[in-house]
Amino acid sequence: MTPSARDLGHLIEADRVHGSLYSDTAIFEQELRKIWYRTWVYVGHESEIPNTGDFVMKSIGPQPIIMTRSSAGAVTLLLNRCPHRGNQVCTVPKGNARTFSCPYHNWTFANDGHLTAFAFPAGYSGQDMSKLGLGRVPRVASHRGFVFGSFAADGPSLAEHLGGAAETIDRLCDASPEGEIEITAGFLQHRVRANWKFVIENETDGYHPAFVHSSIFSVADSGIGSLYGQKSTALTRDYGNGHTEVDLRPEFRRLGRPLAWFGTTPERMAGYVARMNAARGEKKATEIMIDGAPHVMIFPNLFIAEIQIFVIQARAVDDTVQHVTALQLKGAADINRRLRQQTMGSVGPAGLLLADDSEMYERTQRGVQMRDPEWLFIGRGRHRERLDEHGYQVAHATDELPQRGIWRHYRALMEAA
Amino acid sequence: MPVPTADDDALLRRVERFIYHEARLQDEHRYAEWEALWTDDGIYWVPANGDDIDPEQQMSIIYDNRSRIGVRIRQLLTGRRYTQEPRSRLRHLITNVEVTDHQAGTIHAACNVMVFESNLRGETIWAARTDYALREADGDLKMASKKVALVNNDKPLHTLSFLI
Q: Are A204 and A333 within one domain?
């Protein structure tokens, strides 16, 4: 029997969640309807389609999405399905096109989705063809170039959805001398046989790095390890709406060294530092370069991990793809090169960090199919949750405050009518 | 196609022996011996999203200079590289070995490779075209570059944490 979507109280409690939430295909189908095809989902970045007619293949959950910059200049999210017989109108990962033509019967669509031509038109004499366009994601909105789509025609605005977490995206853009980030280095696609929620919960799990990543910390001293120790002053934060952060700024401010967050020095990034000082003034630039870029999980699928972004795609209950690329700070060639090199080393299928995270995702996926115990415990640090100066809940870097926040929002979405 | 000389055949046999030896070290997780096959300026490259991307500008699955090859090996040797604990069981199958160029002490060679992997997740088949630049060093060959162009490098891939 399909579990009731109206009350998940029997599966989600304050400090534990039921294993079936990760493995039940009926629950996954409900997640598609209640979360992936309703709430705001990150799709792509405006810098991926800078010119009129540019397009790039993206996704919302299992649905392929063509993100285009239409001839009117607007970012449009199209579904890749011809309204005639369902054929795909786009089979390449990116390009530039004024129109998409279906190879089956030569129906042609503008890059905003509307039908512009169809073969042998006399056969449709007297019929209204005007509504036979490509499907469109009804709501598209962006924040600082980050494009989100919602399959719900009505609902909270993107600003309402992001809430306080919008500031983390601003913080990231502030790290660029021109106040913009760019996505230009192409994506690695890392597939795991695990449920998407194991992935997003791990992104702001500050408890695991000391163990899962001890191998790389012991052979390449990046300084990351100590950020997640018992004595760390870093914080976990719950912004609400499922958005969570590990705020490493307390540790970096304690160190007080610009670019320590990126394991480098102002001397080695002289071009970047000069441009930041010129753009922001030395005092403000120094503060930004001490604080570093954010480590934030924007529910349900955008993980900004200081130097890279992960776009998490749920494809099936136990099939998730992590699309990952280096962040590029507009106007900063020297730091961008290092951003690419460090990203390539750490993430993707062969990444020195992510291959081990992904191993944990797959083992936990197998684990929740075992019969006993049925629950997963997420109670770490409940006794030390407190409010920060902005009224958001914070706790120790290694506490499971973010996971509790993710599940609270998940439950609200799944129980909504 | 010109008729191969005895020297051509001898060179091909020598290259084949090197590639088979390298594959066996990979299959058997003999990390230190595999690392010793590299020149000091070696580049280990597994491109993504095509075979001819610019690795200085675009993301690759692996783009290791000699220093990072060393880090990768030392991590495997810790015993806590969990994606390889337990280690994958592996067999590299090598075919279509060709010497594509030979001058100034550097041999360029290529082959097709298929790898069968068995690990905790299950069984995975990997297929690639591999290009080598091999350099003479004290009577041995060493790898100055190895490029592994996976057939499906434009698709989502499972973890690739063994030495391919």
A: yes
